[in-house]
Amino acid sequence: MAENKARQTGSAGRFGARYGRVARKRVAEIEEDMHDDHECPDCGAERVDRKGTGIWQCGNCDYKFAGGTYRPETPGGRTVRRSIRAALSSDGE
């Protein structure tokens, strides 16, 4: 009889031996990042949860906002925000 080894497989363990090691590892990393604590852009609390695809809501102040599919803020969004700040600061001179 096979031994029952108690191992932690993570969120991608539900796929078993299917889809390959790299794909399962990528899914596990994405889901881990998605379920991490994220900071609210409104109140600063670490209570932002994903409500749907690209929809995030703070559990502290109920601030709801759009973000990335798996993260509240995407690298592209950071770049755009930086560009807007730079443009606004140069207009004020």
Automatic annotation (TrEMBL):
<feature type="binding site">
    <location>
        <position position="43"/>
    </location>
    <ligand>
        <name>Zn(2+)</name>
    </ligand>
</feature>
<dbReference type="GO" id="GO:1990904">
    <property type="term" value="C:ribonucleoprotein complex"/>
</dbReference>
<comment type="function">
    <text>Binds to the 23S rRNA.</text>
</comment>
<comment type="similarity">
    <text>Belongs to the eukaryotic ribosomal protein eL43 family. Putative zinc-binding subfamily.</text>
</comment>
<dbReference type="GO" id="GO:0008270">
    <property type="term" value="F:zinc ion binding"/>
</dbReference>
<dbReference type="GO" id="GO:0006412">
    <property type="term" value="P:translation"/>
</dbReference>
<dbReference type="InterPro" id="IPR002674">
    <property type="entry name" value="Ribosomal_eL43"/>
</dbReference>
<dbReference type="Pfam" id="PF01780">
    <property type="entry name" value="Ribosomal_L37ae"/>
</dbReference>
<dbReference type="InterPro" id="IPR011331">
    <property type="entry name" value="Ribosomal_eL37/eL43"/>
</dbReference>
<feature type="binding site">
    <location>
        <position position="40"/>
    </location>
    <ligand>
        <name>Zn(2+)</name>
    </ligand>
</feature>
<dbReference type="GO" id="GO:0005840">
    <property type="term" value="C:ribosome"/>
</dbReference>
<dbReference type="GO" id="GO:0070180">
    <property type="term" value="F:large ribosomal subunit rRNA binding"/>
</dbReference>
<feature type="binding site">
    <location>
        <position position="61"/>
    </location>
    <ligand>
        <name>Zn(2+)</name>
    </ligand>
</feature>
<dbReference type="InterPro" id="IPR011332">
    <property type="entry name" value="Ribosomal_zn-bd"/>
</dbReference>
<dbReference type="InterPro" id="IPR050522">
    <property type="entry name" value="Ribosomal_protein_eL43"/>
</dbReference>
<feature type="binding site">
    <location>
        <position position="58"/>
    </location>
    <ligand>
        <name>Zn(2+)</name>
    </ligand>
</feature>
<protein>
    <recommendedName>
        <fullName>Large ribosomal subunit protein eL43</fullName>
    </recommendedName>
</protein>
<keyword id="KW-0862">Zinc</keyword>
<keyword id="KW-0479">Metal-binding</keyword>
<comment type="subunit">
    <text>Part of the 50S ribosomal subunit.</text>
</comment>
<keyword id="KW-0694">RNA-binding</keyword>
<keyword id="KW-0689">Ribosomal protein</keyword>
<keyword id="KW-0699">rRNA-binding</keyword>
<feature type="zinc finger region" description="C4-type">
    <location>
        <begin position="40"/>
        <end position="61"/>
    </location>
</feature>
<keyword id="KW-0687">Ribonucleoprotein</keyword>
<keyword id="KW-0863">Zinc-finger</keyword>
